What does this fold into?
Amino acid sequence: MITKQAHGLNYIGPRKALLVSTIHHVMSQHPNYPKQVQNWRTNKLQPELHRRQAALFCFGRKCLEITDKWALAAWPDQNSPIDYVLRQIKSDGKERYEFVQLKEVVPEEVNSEQSLQDLLDELPKKYSSTDELTIAIHIHRELSTKVSDLRKPNLPNGRLWLFGFGGEPPHNAFLFGDWFKSPSLVNFTYPTMFAGESLTQWNGSLDED
It folds into this structure.
């Protein structure tokens, strides 16, 4: 039933979603706007923040499994633990859906007392049943830590990924996971417009593919 519902959602490719997000972010940086508007920390702008986070996570997954086609869609039920759905289409045409709960280590100016370990420790309390649920944590601040120093949460049958801006130069973003299996670290570059490219040229297509 849940897969059938996922099949009928409206998907967008992660690169296109990030480029749209970049334009919206630039428009929100007017000096007369309040800081919470510039940082997308209002109820009205929360969907924009979540879409950018989901798109960055999806784009990282695309960079990790580059031969597959990836897209994302917001989950319509706001009372569900699912925030977004990732759709992965393998080279043989087989579709796979992944149900994602977004989490965030917020910028220090939002909450300087929050830590990644605190967030990890809270997960089992909130998600005692994580069957087939992916927890994707956006590291939204400068953070230096060793994964081996962190306590891994107990999330039976769940998946756990970390992602955010940073990474090894010349890249400026990273993805780590699945922490519960054989995790990989991939450094990738946030997409920008190609010369002569515009969002309208896709004419509603999922992505640049």
Notes: DSSP finds five helices and seven strands in the chain. Residues 195 and 201 are 13 Å apart (CA to CA). Residues 2-189 form one domain.
